[in-house]
Design goal:
45% helix; Beta-Lactamase; six-stranded antiparallel sheet; single chain; eight-stranded mixed barrel; alpha+beta; 6 domains; 873 residues
Length: 873
């Protein structure tokens, strides 16, 4: 039986081929082939399974390898990030090996970093590392140590070395890691330093500091400044909360304030705090939020501004007082704020100088623009220095323009006000109209350098003019002549017609001389009836004749004509002297020569005139013997208060008990003593005698009385005055003020700076000082205010005609006012009438002496006259 299996047409033939087979044939044919295919299929399947398993194992191994590499890369990266590397120590002797990461960490190549640790570990840590490794190997516990190593580039680094003992095969290996912890160590060191500084600043801060818990405000930490400032112990603070420091009425506000305060807020709050003793303080409290030992807290600083509050309150009161004073005084009070440069004036400024407030404004430039142009540079400079803190006080005299255009003399004074740092922040002061005072001072200055009677320059001024003329003549190689003019027999006019008529003659002669010597020439009055003329370029015979003729013209007095003739001495620079004193001395010799020639003539200095000196030498020799033989004695004239006539002291006056001529006054021997230098030993004798007599006063219980002693220029400037007084004070146990030294104005002006220095030393020694014969016109007010004086003595010439003579009265009034302004007492000499005494007392004179009260007399006679019990010897 057939079974078709397939059919196909054979092209291009018309044939259809059919193939077929029977089941048995087919089975016989396909069975072996099928078995073969089956075997092949099974073999392929086995191979496929094997290949698949191999592929899976390969992929798993590759994945594991990749994962391992990734782990290694991650480990290396982690070690690099952590600045860590590995190491091992094994074998005997111990071999140290570092991982590539550790080598890189230390700046080495991996192959170069092996063997000994000596090259990289700091010597101080090497032994410690060895001991730690040995300890870990023996005890088989962990290794953990920090060591300092040296980087390849030389830097030092700190490594934290950790490791443990591990078993590998049949041996033990010490394996571990080393991590660079240099930065951590530095950070920890800085942290410890910061912590230490915080502790130091907190504990030693001069301002009170404390830390309080944020929830209940209890004190957690308090510094010593807070303990001292609030007068509590640390134990007391620890048991308290912050609100105990504030008054009860402020406690709720305190808690609300802290509850609503931002953590980052840095502003300060003003609070009242109560000290342990109950004193209320005004404090500024600064606080900031912080964590303190795991507790939320407030760090607080308290600044006590109680003093500032009180000073502000006082300043407000002071400002109010300042405004009241500014309104009450007639001074033009001003106030300049240096921060704003705003200048305030009181009402008196507008009233005094005629300005309106709209004109003035508040700019400093308004004031500056109205200062006289000649004064402004000086005033502006000194005021700028004052505002810059050069001095605390400022004073200037200048001319200030009134609104009407006229200039007024003003005195302006200011005081600097500084802040706590010493910086000037404000200047206040007052400006007064000093026109009248300026006129008065000008007048006093004029009087100090001019003769009050004639208006001519006085001795001091003319001496200075002579010195200046000599300097010019020396520079120009010219001549200067000094004429000393003495009026002949002028004493006759005074004695016969009175001093008033004599003064009229002097004024007429002064006018004539001033008229004749005009231009570069200068005329002055030396005192008495002596005049001096200073003539540049010399004087010829014609001019001399004209001078004699001019003075000799009659003077009309009391309805009649009076004739006055001069004796004139002439000394010229350079032939007769090189300085003012020499020229004056030689002109004086020449003047005496003119008198010896019959008066009414001119005589030029010549050395032959000095023959008169020989006679004076004889007198000097006699004076020396008198000093050695004890022929000098002291007489004493008491001094009294002008108002109550209470005894205040005595003046010692030297006399010469001449064996033949009797008792001679000082005028007959003192000038010769001064010329010869005998004045120094004579003055020393007078001073010692005065001290001896004061010792007797002490025995009588009147140590309060002072003894005044006249001192000459020679003794004061060239003697051992200070040394003598120190020794005498010790010898006689003199109290302070026992001795008063009287200086004349000529002594002061001879060498003012030296005199001032010596006077100050005398003052320090307890010696009182007075200026004798004040008002004769010789002294300079510029020096007078610097002299450490106690008293001024008005010359008897100004007391003689009181109170009738208005000029003398004006001079005495001025001297008394001047002394009062300088804080000095005034003594009037030559008081002879009750009218003089009453006038002086009424016008503020402190003390008087003169014939009205007592004449000069010996000490014992003086004691008896005043009723002292003369028991002291």
């Amino acid at each position: 039986m057939f079974r078709y299996s397939a059919t196909r047409q054979v092209e291009p033939y018309p044939l259809l081929v059919t193939a077929g087979s029977s089941r048995q044939s087919a089975m016989a044919l396909w069975l072996p082939a099928g078995l073969l295919v089956l075997v092949m299929l099974l073999s392929g399947l086995v191979w496929w399974v094997a290949l698949r398993s191999f592929a899976r194992n390969y992929l798993q191994q590759k994945a594991f390898t990749n994962e391992l590499q990734q782990s290694r890369d991650a480990l290396r990266q982690a070690q690099e990030l952590a600045q860590m590397g590995g190491w091992t120590i094994s074998g005997r002797p111990h071999q140290w090996r570092a991982s590539e990461e550790l080598a890189t960490l230390l700046g080495h190549e991996h192959r170069t970093l092996a063997g000994s640790l000596r090259e990289i570990v700091a010597p101080g840590d090497l032994e410690a590392l060895r001991r730690a490794c040995t300890h870990a190997s023996i005890r088989r516990n962990g290794l953990d140590i920090e060591v300092t190593v040296r980087h390849q580039q030389g830097d030092l680094k700190v490594l934290r070395v950790r490791g443990s003992l591990q078993r590998e095969a049949n041996r033990f290996v010490l394996r571990g890691t080393a991590q660079d912890v240099t930065d951590s160590v530095l950070v920890l060191a800085r942290l410890r330093d910061t912590e230490s500084r915080y502790r130091f600043l907190f504990a030693n801060n001069p301002m009170p500091l404390w830390i309080v818990a944020a929830d209940d405000l209890r004190f957690l930490e308090v510094n010593s400044a807070a303990l001292a400032h609030y007068q509590r112990t640390e134990t007391q603070f620890r048991g308290l909360a912050l609100d105990v420091l504030v008054p009860e009425e402020d406690r709720d506000r305190l808690r609300r304030s802290l509850a609503h305060r931002r953590n980052d807020e840095r502003s300060a709050d003003l609070w009242r705090h109560v000290r342990a003793d109950g004193l209320v303080l005004h404090v500024l409290v600064y606080c900031v939020r912080m964590d303190y030992q795991g507790v939320s807290a407030w760090l607080m600083l308290a600044m006590d501004i109680s003093d500032w509050i009180h000073s502000e309150q006082e300043r407000a009161v002071s400002e109010q007082r300042f405004q009241l004073v500014a309104q009450a005084t007639s001074d033009a009070v001003w106030d300049l704020d240096l921060a704003t440069h705003r200048l305030w004036w009181s009402d008196s400024f507008y009233e005094t100088f005629g300005f309106s407030r709209e004109q003035v404004g508040d700019e400093v430039v308004f004031w500056l623009d109205r200062i006289h142009p000649d004064d402004r540079p000086r005033v502006e400079t000194t005021f700028a220095d004052f505002c810059n803190g050069a001095t605390d006080r400022w004073q200037e005299n200048y001319r200030f323009r009134h609104d009407n255009g006229t200039y007024m003399d003003v005195n302006d004074q200011g005081k600097a006000i500084r802040n706590d740092y010493g910086q000037v922040v404000r200047v206040v002061g007052g400006m007064i109209d000093a026109s009248e005072r300026h006129r008065y001072q000008t007048e006093l200055a004029w009087q100090a350098s001019h003769d009050a009677l004639t208006g001519l320059p006085n001795r001091v001024a003319i001496t200075q003019k002579i010195a200046a003329a000599i300097q010019r003549a020396e520079r120009d190689s010219t001549q200067v002549c000094v004429l000393l003019i003495d009026l002949d027999h002028f004493k006759v006019i005074n004695d016969s017609l009175g001093h008033a008529m004599g003064d009229e003659v002097l004024k007429v002669i002064a006018l004539r001389l001033s008229t004749l010597f005009s231009g570069d020439a200068l005329v002055g009055r030396f005192g008495g009836d002596e005049f001096v003329a200073v003539i540049p370029h010399g004087i010829d015979h014609v001019a001399r004749h004209d001078l004699l003729h001019l003075i000799a013209e009659p003077v009309e007095l009391m309805g009649g004509l009076r004739y006055v003739t001069p004796s004139i001495g002439i000394a010229c620079f350079p032939q007769h002297g090189g300085d003012a004193n020499t020229l004056l001395k030689n002109a004086d010799l020449a003047m005496y020569g003119a008198k010896q020639q019959g008066r009414n003539t001119c005589v030029e200095y010549d050395r032959t005139l000095e023959t008169d000196v020989d006679e004076r030498l004889d007198v000097v020799s006699r004076l020396r013997r008198a000093l050695d033989d004890g022929e000098f004695v002291l007489h004493f004239q008491p001094q009294f208060t002008a108002d109550s006539r209470q005894l205040t002291g005595i003046e010692a006056l030297v006399r010469w008990q001449h064996p033949e001529k009797g008792l001679l006054p000082p005028a007959q021997f003192i000038p010769i003593c001064e010329e010869s230098g005998l004045i120094i030993p004579l003055g020393r004798w007078v001073l010692r005698e005065a001290c001896r007599y004061h010792a007797r006063l002490q025995q009588l219980g009147r140590a309060d009385l002072s003894i005044a002693v006249n001192v000459s220029a020679g003794q004061f400037l060239r003697g051992d005055l200070l040394t003598d007084l120190r020794a005498l004070r010790t010898e006689f146990a003199l109290p302070s003020g026992a001795i008063e030294l009287e200086l004349t104005e000529s002594v002061v002006m001879e060498s003012p700076e030296v005199v001032i220095a010596v006077m100050q030393e005398l003052r320090d020694l307890g010696v009182s000082m007075s200026l004798d014969d004040f008002g004769t016109g010789y002294s300079s007010l510029a020096y007078l205010k610097r002299l450490p004086l106690d008293r001024l003595k008005i010359d008897r010439a100004f007391v003689h005609d009181l109170p009738q003579d208005e000029d003398d009265a004006a001079i005495c009034t001025s001297v008394i006012a001047l002394a009062s302004a300088l804080g000095l007492r005034v003594v009037a000499e030559g008081v002879e009438t009750n009218d003089q005494l009453e006038w002086l007392a009424d016008h503020g004179c402190d003390e008087v002496q003169g014939y009205l009260m007592a004449r000069p007399m010996p000490f014992d006679a003086w004691l008896s006259a005043l009723g002292f019990a003369n028991t002291a010897t």
